[in-house]
Structure formats: structure tokens, C-alpha cells
Write a structure and sequence with these properties.
The complex is a heterotetramer, with 2 copies of chain A and 2 copies of chain C. By secondary structure, chain A is of the alpha/beta class. Chain A has 12 helices and 14 strands. In chain A, helix 1 packs parallel to helix 7, helix 3 packs parallel to helix 4 and helix 8 crosses helix 12. Chain C contains 13 helices and 8 strands. At the A-B interface, helix 4, helix 6 and helix 10 of A face helix 4, helix 6 and helix 10 of B. The structure holds thiamine diphosphate (2 copies) and magnesium ion (MG) (2 copies).
Amino acid sequence: MSKVQASAETRDITLVEAVNMALHRAMADDDNVVVLGEDIATNGGVFRATVGLKEAFGFKRVMDTPLAENLIAGAAIGMATQGLRPVAEFQFMGFIYAGMEQVISHAARMRNRTRGRLHCPLVFRAPFGGGIHAPEHHSESTEALFAHIPGLRVVIPSSPQRAYGLLLAAIRNPDPVIFLEPKRIYRAVTQSVKDNGEALPLDTCFTLREGDDVTLITWGACVQETLQAADKLAEQGVSCEVIDVATVSPLDRETLLCSVAKTGRAVIIHEACRNGGVGAEVAASIAEGAFLDLQAPAVRVTGYDTIMPYYRNEQHYLPQVEDIIGAVEQVIAL
Amino acid sequence: MSKVQASAETRDITLVEAVNMALHRAMADDDNVVVLGEDIATNGGVFRATVGLKEAFGFKRVMDTPLAENLIAGAAIGMATQGLRPVAEFQFMGFIYAGMEQVISHAARMRNRTRGRLHCPLVFRAPFGGGIHAPEHHSESTEALFAHIPGLRVVIPSSPQRAYGLLLAAIRNPDPVIFLEPKRIYRAVTQSVKDNGEALPLDTCFTLREGDDVTLITWGACVQETLQAADKLAEQGVSCEVIDVATVSPLDRETLLCSVAKTGRAVIIHEACRNGGVGAEVAASIAEGAFLDLQAPAVRVTGYDTIMPYYRNEQHYLPQVEDIIGAVEQVIAL
Amino acid sequence: MRQIHEFQVDSTRYLDDHGKPLGELPLQAENTDRVLAAYRNMVLTRTFDSKAIALQRTGKCGTYPSVLGHEVVGTAIGQGMRKSDVFVPYYRDQASHILRGVSLTELLLYWGGDERGSAWKNCPEDLPISVPIATQCCHAVGVAAAMKIRDQSRAVVCCIGDGGTSKGDFLESINLAGAWHLPVVFMVINNQWAISTPRSLQSGAETIAQKAISAGLPGHIVDGNDYFATVEALDTAVERAHSGKGATVIEAVTYRLGDHTTADDATRYRTAEDLKRAWEKDGIKRLQNWLHDRGLWSPDKEKALQAECKQTVEKAVESYLATEAEPPTAMLDYLFESLPAALQQQREQIADRYRGGRA
Amino acid sequence: MRQIHEFQVDSTRYLDDHGKPLGELPLQAENTDRVLAAYRNMVLTRTFDSKAIALQRTGKCGTYPSVLGHEVVGTAIGQGMRKSDVFVPYYRDQASHILRGVSLTELLLYWGGDERGSAWKNCPEDLPISVPIATQCCHAVGVAAAMKIRDQSRAVVCCIGDGGTSKGDFLESINLAGAWHLPVVFMVINNQWAISTPRSLQSGAETIAQKAISAGLPGHIVDGNDYFATVEALDTAVERAHSGKGATVIEAVTYRLGDHTTADDATRYRTAEDLKRAWEKDGIKRLQNWLHDRGLWSPDKEKALQAECKQTVEKAVESYLATEAEPPTAMLDYLFESLPAALQQQREQIADRYRGGRA
Ligand SMILES: Cc1ncc(C[n+]2csc(CCOP(=O)(O)OP(=O)(O)O)c2C)c(N)n1
Ligand SMILES: Cc1ncc(C[n+]2csc(CCOP(=O)(O)OP(=O)(O)O)c2C)c(N)n1
Ligand SMILES: [Mg+2]
Ligand SMILES: [Mg+2]
């Protein structure tokens, strides 16, 4: 079928390499998988996420497009209605907005609108989040915009293993998935990943660390700072449960509520601005679903309600380890 | 300046007529106010919101545009940087998505980006919400998408008087305002409105009815059902405070928290789907800010997390008076 | 040193306003069966249309966009396409849908506010009606790209109105079709109006067909009330697509003889004379005259056809009106392939509420 | 009956690759002071450019897009515009910004991650750098519409890359400019690449200028390394706009001689020969040769200019490096005209946190 190696090799790789590995695997496994986007074929993507695909699978299945995000989104939808499984890259999340109409009005609706006659088995990938000293519009984390749209899944990996397993799941999923890759940790950590073609479940949170005193709920790059905070808090004798939400919509409230029922306290951490962020839904769900269990209100540690500053000041916007620790101390004090 | 009548005449008018009255008033008061959109000049708008403007102020200030929402949004931004105060109509909220990139990446950012050198004193108007037996895409209520974007104000009138006063305020405001008009009640109620040029404050909730037992928080067309529910509940001896949020972003948390501090209970009602709706932010803010006052969790009565059904079934999607009463009974029981 | 690059589009008509040939007719005129089938479809479409408007006026259907004035071009599209091609419509393509196999009942269900109106059984790959203007053009190139990726000899026909050609989607899509040599035909139905906005306010371009030049594509104008000019253009463009020669843009010039939709009142923005002049160019009457002149048609045949169409429409209306609404839980049943756990509770709530569980 | 509609675009160059006239030069060649000023701006721009790249390489500046190869067209834009006109740039217009009055320090602040880099003091109405491709075109027509609404004799010049012309915004905007006869000039800087995507993959159109035809606008191609051809086209188009004759689309053909940005490595997707051939057409060298042949330039003058430019750039770099970052609270101070009550608490938090209040 193709020359790509399909052995279950295990390698220590970065998150972006895991994305690449999953793309190779998915394309090798299924001829219907095609990849498209700006600079993804010959150049291998500006973050190198698609490197090698064109060489392995040919330009018919790995397509450099003209510069038009609305077109990329819409063409992917058209391909998907024909049973292809397009994986379209938006070079940065900040450039997906031109494609919003297609995402909201068509990708999310095609199955419902046709009562299942047509559907959209596609993945819209985009690197997202700040902290890499990039120019304006290169630091967006507006996952909440997509999470609010019924018919979409919004999936955010936070480790190489989860990037591999969740991307495979997203591609195999028969419905549209917005797959947001935290670029700040594209190369920050490595992990041994087995290229075994095994997908991870969507629609479920991952409990990364068990604890009794407080539940830390987060996703994306913030998982790093959250785990660091949990480490430090452990030294102070505070036992944190750390949950990577991973699929921020539809939201696996059950896992969250079970954890909060146990700990009685929750801190929600995300990089997006606070007002109307996914953290609001998490907090509202916890408030409603665990009212009697809560010993303190769920507290949110987030970006401020403003535009991500240009890079000289971006660290002042991003949630830091100390902010998480501060919030935990606050809810523990109650 | 123009032939439009600028007397402080008082008339019994509908919400859409109040919009029209405010537009006339704003254009008469300030030559910089211009109006643009699809079918708004010669035709007076598909809902007649702009009727008479072209005749009164001429085609230079009242512009029928080609069919391109992205262009309408972006051209309005360009005009605004020159000190005009464009009021652009999107024919239905469901068609604003093509303009999302301009709204998010430019309108909301121009002032911040240029450190105040340029700014965007513009209003993007759109009829929104369901319940008028319209075709697909004509029933959207995705205010949450805009509420999450820093730099925007999202304002929703729910009566003729507030439509008049808030639209004047929005037009005079030096920053971009998304002005969403609940089309279900465009003509459902009339109210006497004085054309006195007086604006209402933005960034503040309106308490429509005082009460002690529970705070009902809502906006847009749902204000109608909420007031009806409050009436019925009064008969049962339940005293409801009813708050019209009006400016859903930035959110006037103070008014909400004061009310909940008094009543100890809150029900949030909106038509948009629940997951990640503005109700989530309201609920999260209440949970965080009124934790010790709450005798029951804030409960949300909303649309379901799905696509607004075509009109034969739309009433099954929309929150009904009984749903609100049921939710109040539920929180009162706790 | 100055160099000149030249470009052109052509425009074609074969019949005058009364159906008299202006010169030699194309081959398509010889296929009498096909011409007669076309005529029948036009009449059926028009019969359906006036019934749908009547249903709306009497509260039995939702907002409906009349197809009056589009019957000829819609029929030409339906005939020009092969079964295995994919049709990517906008919302005023009733004449084409009928030929593709969409039932009149399905069409009524759609405009009657029922999602099952897009669950087309007979043309399962055609895209559903697209309400957000011009967005369907991007789907069309995606479908065409899929065909090309798979080396299929198939084509896509995509419809859009004159107003729609101002929206980026159209221009981005024709550009991709040109860059990738995609098997797609863009049919611009220039009916002179986008709701109240006249063609002249949409663009300073003298013709819409010349937008094809921006994409390096051939652009053709046809008289959209001239069946022969329109069907010839379709046949040629579809054949071109099938044989791997790439995309075509066709501007079919016609006139929207009705209101924009049943929610519109066109007298607000256009004159009675304009409308009257447009009626004089009506393509159905024109083809009828031609058929008559050729001895292929008669008042009796016309009467029989009218009766037959009426009956067909009545039957569809009956079955439409007899269709019960879906249970409200259907609003969650097609959102995803299978309902995520997160939504199960909402589905139960809907069911409860519907059964009166709430009250 | 078939009718043909014809359209054309022209393409112009005056100098050969070595700066020798290919024929008669336009009037612009006689304005020696202006030509010399142009040359100086090109050299200053190039000097600035290599310094900015060096700063990025040493960690003193952020990702930076080299302007190498755009100096001629950028300079022609700056010269063609009048002070009261409005410039609507994209992100590779350093040569124009300098002539508009943006300071080199401001440019460095911008690319150094500081919003004050867009608070331009000397050209307060120019729009800031636009990162989202093509979006600025819509602003340009909005600004031009404002001028027209107010009956001003002013013009807008809007820049965009070849890649950008595939995005709907460009096509929608030129269409509005045509429909509304707006005083705007669209400068397409066709440098053959959009990051790694070659011009040939962007569009099947033979030229980009022909996209103007879709909007009913005149389209012209100029050799963007030929100062005379480019500045003549600008002068003409700006004059046209000022005199109410409407919009123009100009395609300036050049080559991106550097990487896309400092984050890019162009050797991944283009050959050394390509680049070498492009260098042979370098517009700065070409103009220098011409000046030399005319007796207007000398090695001494060149040496002096280089030294002067270096000094100017060094001074700007010093002032850039000496600029302290804004206090973090600035992130809320320019969001709205005045801070809404809802955000006051967050501003206090930021201030606290900055003062170490959190720790
Ligand atoms: C993106 C978008 N904007 C606005 C509308 C509202 N609208 C519906 S039809 C229409 C006019 C379309 O005109 P045209 O494309 O010429 O098609 P026609 O209706 O004349 O067949 C408009 C503005 C819409 N459906 N989608
Ligand atoms: C809407 C959008 N999509 C993608 C990008 C990422 N990007 C930055 S520059 C660029 C290529 C632009 O090429 P072109 O328009 O030819 O201008 P050039 O850089 O060659 O001067 C891309 C894809 C962006 N900035 N904006
Ligand atoms: Mg039309
Ligand atoms: Mg380029």
C-alpha cells in the first residue's frame, strides 16, 4: 500500500513528532486519509508536523493548498462527504477564523442536516496557545469558540502519547474533530511512544495524578505548569488530583464530578482568557453537579480578559506555577 | 442637517421600530454615523429596521453592499479608523461567521494594537434567536462566541425602550459593539418610547422586577418567558427577582452577585445551547462570587446542546415558561 | 516595453424571445425526446412552485423561495449531469433537484421545516441545499478533488446566484478549481437580483462570467431562458470535466420572476415594467413556441401535461401533509454518529418533556 | 448567436536586468532628486533589514520577515503616495513605512514584541501591520469609502502578497472598489512565494493582475525590480484615485530573496539556482547601475551612503534596545477607551502580581 514503515517501533519523541507519527500511521492504514493545508506538503508544515508525508504518500493525498482558510475548511468538508477523511491543517489557530462559517455552519451540521445521509469525518488541526515569542495572532487559545458549537468535538492533547492516540482517534472518528496542538510544548517534553496504531478514547478526561485534597483541572500546555504545581504542593503536604480534560467538548463531566466529590475542591487552569472560557463551563458544571460536595468554590486560574500581549509581556499574561499554587492555597484555606 | 424629525415625540412602538428610531436619531445627531449592509438601503432591511434611512440621509451614508459579510465587517472597520461610526447590519446572526476573522482579529484589537492611535467605534447589528419559523441558519443565538472575545461589547436589548437607549449608547461608544436583536420579539411587544436621544448605560444589568426568593437571570427574547414565569410563580407565593443582563460582555457581575446574595438562589435562562453558553460564565461567576450565599446551585434553563431544529420542532428546543418554573421549584426545594 | 495579455468570455443564445431560431441550432435540438423531457420538467417545476407558494400563504409551509424564472437553467443542469455526478446546489434549484431524483415531498418537507427533507434517497451523494450564500462552492471543489484523487471520471455541478459571486467563497473556489484542474462546473444563475440588490450594485464587472478569468478558467455567458444555449453549455462543460480538461464557469442570464422568497415583497424595489419585460423573455413559453413550430407540441398536449403535473404535485402535497413531525429527540439523534455520554441526559430530558414528564 | 467580450492587462518594464534602458523612459526618470531619494531609501531599507535579521539571530528581536527583494516596490509606494493618503500595509512593507514616517525604532519595537511599535507618530492614519493575510484589503476599501463619503481628494494604497490574492478578502475588496469606484490602489507584491508555496500553486491564472478583471478594474503588471515602471504605475494609479476615476490593481513582479521569515528555511523548498537567477534581477543594483551610467552616482557616494545608513540603523537599534518593556498592566489599558468595571479587579491583580504581590 505504501512504503511507510508500519512496525510497532517505540521511540522517544516530542509531541509534534507524535502528531507526525500518527499522521503517517493513519495514512498508511487507510487510503481515505488525505492531508491538506498551507505549506504542509513540500515544506512539511511550518512546525514540521507533516514532514515526510508527501514523500511517503504522494502529492495526491498530501496537498499544498492556496492561501485561503475558508476554502481549506470548505474543501475538506466536500472531500469528507465523499468518504475521504481529510486532515486539514490551519497554520495557526489565529488563522482559522476565516473558516468559521464552514466549521460552524457546515462541518458541524452536515450529518444532522441530512439525517445521516452525509457526514463529515474530518479533522481540523491547528497549533494553538502562546509562550513561543511569536508575532501577533500566533498565540490564540480560543478553544471555547469551538466547544460551544454542537456537532464538533474539540480535542487537545498534552503529551506525545496522548497526541498520538488522540489524533488517531480523531481521524478514525466519523464526525468532525477540532484538534488543537499546544505548540508551547510541541518540543518541550519527550516520551516513549509506541507506533502501534492504538487510538485513545475521545470524550473522556485523563486523570494524570491521583490525590485527595483538591482537583486540578486543565488541558493543553497548562498541564505542564499544573503538574509542576502539584509536585510543589505535594512537598507542602497538599495532595492534588490532576485531570487533563483532553476532549473539552463534549465534556466528560462524570470524571470531573467524581473527582470533586472525593476532594471537595477544584481549581481550573487554562491559558485562554477567563470570561466565557471552557473553564466557565467546567466551573458551572461542578457548581451544579457537586454542590453538596464542595468545600470551596471552584476557582479559575486563567489568562486575563484581554488580548494576549505581544511577546515581551506574554509571560505576564500566561498562568504560572505560582498562580496555580496560590489558587490551591486559597481553596484549601476555606 | 437633515429632514428627519428630531422632536422628543413619544410613541408606542415595537422593538424593531425602536431600533429604527435610534438609527434615525443617531444619524441626525452625528454626520459620522453611517449605515451599511445587505438590502438595508432601498429595501429598508429584511426586517425593516433601516427603513427610511436612505430617504432621510442619502445613499452616501446608507449603503447597500455587495453580498459579502467578511467585506462588510472589514470595510466597517476601515471606515471606523477614519472616525466614521459605521453601523453594519448582518442580515441574520447565522451569516456573521464569514466576518468572524475581521471581528476577532481586527475590530476587537485595533485600539490595543495601535496603543490607542486608531480605534473602532462601530456597531455590528444582527437579528438573532429562534422561534420565528425560519429556515436553517436563521435561528442562531451564539452570543457566547463574541462574549469570549476581549475588546468587544456584546449588547442585547429586550424591550423597545432598551433597544432605543442601548443602540444609541452602542453607536456613541468609542469601541466595537456587537448588538444582537432578539427577532422573536421584534414585533411581539410595544412600549411607549420617547425619542429624546437619551442613551442607556452599557456594561450594566437591568433589574426588571425585584424579589426575595430567587434571582432569574436572562437576556434577549427569553426575558418574555422569564417574566411570565415570575408572574405565575408569584401566584404560588414565590418572589422572583428578574434581571435582564443586557450587556452579556463585559459582564456586570456586581448586580448579579448582589441579587444572589439577597435571594440565595439563581436560575439562568437563555436560548443558546447550554455547553459553553454565556450562562456558564454567569453560573461560574455566581458560584465563585456568592459561594457562601447560595442555598442551591445556580441552575441553567437553556437550549439543548444541539443544532436548533428546523421549525416544525423548534419549540421543543426553546426554553418554555414551564421549564423556568420547574427550575425555580427545583432550587427552591433545596 | 509594454506587453498586452488578452482574455475573453463569449455569450450565446439560439432562440429569440418568441422561440424563433436566430440561426443554426446546436445538436441538442435534434434530441427530441430530451427536449420534450426538458419541457415537461419545466412545467412540473412551475406547477410545484405555485403550489408551494400557496401552501406557504395558507400556513402549511415555511418561507419558500420561488423558482420562477429558473426553470430552464435548472432543467438544463439536471439534464447535463450524469447520474454518478454530484450536484452542489444553493436554495433555488428545484428544477434540477427534480431531475436528480429528489421527490417533491422531500422538497416540501425541507421548506416545511423538517430535516428529513434533505435525506434524499435517490441522489444520496448530492449535497443538501446550502443556505449560507456561496459556501457550497468550497464543498464543490472538495468533492471534485475527491473525484480527482480517486481517478474517477465524474463531475460536480455547483450552483450559485449572482449575489453569491461577490462572496469570497466563490472566488476562492473557482481559483482552486483552476489551480488543481478540477472536474467542476460553476453555474452562476444571474437573475439580476440578490433580494433587493440589483446586479449592478454587486460588481463593477461588465459580466459575471469574466470572474472566471481571475482563476484562469474559461467563462461563458448563456441566455438562461434559452434552453438550447444553456443545455449546450452544460453538456460541453460536463464533458470537459469528465475528460480531465478542468473547470468551467457559466453565467446563465435570467430574471427572478417572483419575490425573493415568500417573506419578501419585490414591489418595494423594482418596477412593474421591469417585471413585465422579463416575462416577455420567459424561457418556458419560448420553448413551448419552438416545440409548437416544430410540430412537437399542441394545446391538447399542453392541457394533458398541465393536468398530469397538477396531479403529481397534489400527490406530493398529500404525502407531505400526512408526514408527522419527527419526535423531538431526533434533534440529538443525528448530531454525531452515536450520542456521546455527555448528551445522554439531555436526550432523556427531551423525551420526558415531550411525554409531558415536565408538566 | 455568439458574442465576444474582450479584456486585457498590460505589463511594463523600462530597464533591463543591468539597468540599461530598453527604450524611452517615463517622465519619472527626469526627477533626479526623487530618483536619488528612492535609491537612498532602498539602501537604507536593505541595511535595516540585515540588521534586524542579525538582531533576531542573536536573540534581540522576534521572528522577522526580511524585505529583501521588496525594496524597489516599497520605495515606489512610499513615493507615489501623498502625505494625506492612507497606507494599508501587510507585514513586508518596511521600505514604504520608512517613507511614510514610521521610525526604524518603531519597526524594531513591533518585531521585538512591543505594541508601541504600531503607535506611529508621523503617519497616524496609516493602518498598522496586518498579520492575518489579506484582511487588510477590506479595511482599505473601508478607508477609501470614508474618503468618498466625505468628498475628500485622498487615496488609499493597500499592499498584499501573491499568496494573499487567493484569499476571499482580496477578491471581495477589489470587487467593492470596482462597484463603488473607490479611490484605492491595490499593490500585489508578487514575490513568487507564499512561504513554501510557489506562485504556480496559488492560481491557474496566468497573471495576478488579471484578477482585476473580475472586479471590472484595470490591471497592470510591472517589473517590481524596475523602479521606473513601478513608480510610474503608482503615480498614475494614485492620480487616478485622486481624480475620482476609481481603483487600480497593480501586480509588481519581484522575488523574495530571503527566507520567508527568520523562522523559515527556504532551502527546503527552492533551489540555489532559482535564487541566483533572482539576484541577477536585483532592483537596487539595477538602479545603481542606471544612476552610475547617468553620472549621478559614484563608488564614493555609495560608500558614504552605506556608512550613513549603517549609522542611522545603529542609532535606531540603540534606542530600541534601550526601550524598557511596558508595565504588564498596559495589556488592559488599551483594550477599551476606558476600563469597564468588570475588568478593574483583573488590572489590580496584574499590578499586584507584577509587584510580586502574589509570591
Ligand atoms: C452568507 C449569507 N448572507 C446573507 C444571506 C441572506 N440571503 C439569502 S438569499 C440572499 C440573496 C442571494 O442572491 P443571489 O445569490 O443572487 O441568489 P438568488 O436569491 O437571486 O437566486 C441573501 C442576502 C444568506 N443566506 N447567506
Ligand atoms: C490568514 C492567514 N493565514 C496564514 C498565515 C500564515 N502566513 C504568514 S505569511 C504567509 C504567506 C504569505 O505569502 P504572500 O501573500 O505571497 O506574501 P509574502 O510573505 O510572500 O510577502 C502565510 C501563509 C497568515 N499570516 N494569515
Ligand atoms: Mg440573484
Ligand atoms: Mg509572496
